[in-house]
Amino acid sequence: MNSVKMSFEKNLQTERTLKIQAVNKLSEIMNRRETMRAGHRHDDTLDMRRKEKENRKLQLELRSEKQKLNSTIIKYQREINDMQAVLSDESQVRMELQMALDSKDSDIEQLRCQLTSLSIHSMDSTSISSSNDMDDSGYPDTRLEGWLSLPMKNTKRFGWDRRYVVVSSKKILFYNSDMDREQSNPYMILDIDKLFHVRPVTQTDVYRADTKEIPRIFQILYANEGESKREQEFAVEPPALAGEHSSYVKHKGHEFIPTLYHLPSSCEACTRPLWNVFKPPPALECRRCHTKCHKDHLDRNEEAIAPCRVNYDISTAKDLLLLAGSQEEQQRWVSRLIRRIPRKHPGPASVAQAPEPPSHSSPRLSPGASPGNSPSLSPHRGAIKVQPKNLGGGGGG
């Protein structure tokens, strides 16, 4: 029994020793793992702090670059605005110089006209008689000037502003006063090459005007690019009375505007009266070719209405109303300006390809070929050619 007991105690002691060793080994392993884990955690913390520091540094650099970019954008935007302002000023100065140059060209043309007239008057009686014929076909026809009135810019009240208008062989110049005329300072210039049409107005065009003024009013229709104006004139456009009608009816190329005629007017589709002082019948007028007819012709879709004769694009055209001093003066302005209208409608291609008319060896032009028929016609050349001979003959006498 004792031996068995001692054997068991020995085995128990052995097992206890092994257990203690296993526990110690396990503790050592656990401590080693904790140490490694703490080391990894410390490394992760350092790495995270390093990355946060780099992130803050990059954010500061990004903010700095954004500020530099914004300051650069503001700087260049300011420079662009300054350059645009300078460009606008230079363009305005250039336009004013060009307008002054056109006015000087008109003055030179007038002086050449007077010089040629003096040369012609120094000839014999035959030359003098030919100079008298030039009233219709020579230099005097190339120049027209006088006082006209334009609609006031104030749209609340219809009225007229007097302007001095000079028509040379290539330009129509508008001056605010005699002083501006003497200083060659026009406020508006129209290019004759860009004219579409010149005609007396109807009641539809100037229904706000006094009925007594209608026979003295005429209209100039021209392309947008044919107009040059000073900067102060751009702010407010003159009231385009015909453009106040916002709606129109399209038919056969016409753009009919509903209207009523209280003054004598005739229908171009029938013989019925188109007007009445108190109760005029509903009527239509084309704002392009100004054909007039009863409204019921269009309502019944009758074939009596002829197609529109005007083929220009009204969106690219502008019109100008002018008031003359009398009906005779209005007719004179209209007849003289109609001669200047290009045979082809104004446009870059037609103007660039317009053939140069043959030069004349005599200062007298053919009565059938008015210089107004072609804007590029320059009758001064023919007159200047005979000028040295006339002056030489005068010097010899």
Automatic annotation (TrEMBL):
Region (Disordered): 344-397
Boundaries of every RhoBD domain copy: 1-35
Superkingdom, taxonomy of origin: Eukaryota
Top EC group: transferase
Key words, A-Z: ATP-binding, Coiled coil, Cytoplasm, Cytoskeleton, Kinase, Magnesium, Metal-binding, Nucleotide-binding, Phosphoprotein, Serine/threonine-protein kinase, Transferase, Zinc
Cofactor(s) needed by this chain: Mg(2+)
Enzyme Commission code: 2.7.11.1
Sequence similarity: Belongs to the protein kinase superfamily. AGC Ser/Thr protein kinase family.
Residue stretches in coiled coil: 48-86
GO cellular component, one term: centrosome
Subcellular location: Cytoplasm, Cytoskeleton
Gene Ontology MF annotations: ATP binding; metal ion binding; Rho-dependent protein serine/threonine kinase activity; small GTPase binding
Location of the Phorbol-ester/DAG-type domain: 253-308
Signal peptide stretch: none
Residue intervals of the PH domain: 141-342
Listed SUPFAM superfamilies: Cysteine-rich domain (SSF57889), G protein-binding domain (SSF103652), PH domain-like (SSF50729)
Listed name of the protein: non-specific serine/threonine protein kinase
GO biological process: one example: cortical actin cytoskeleton organization
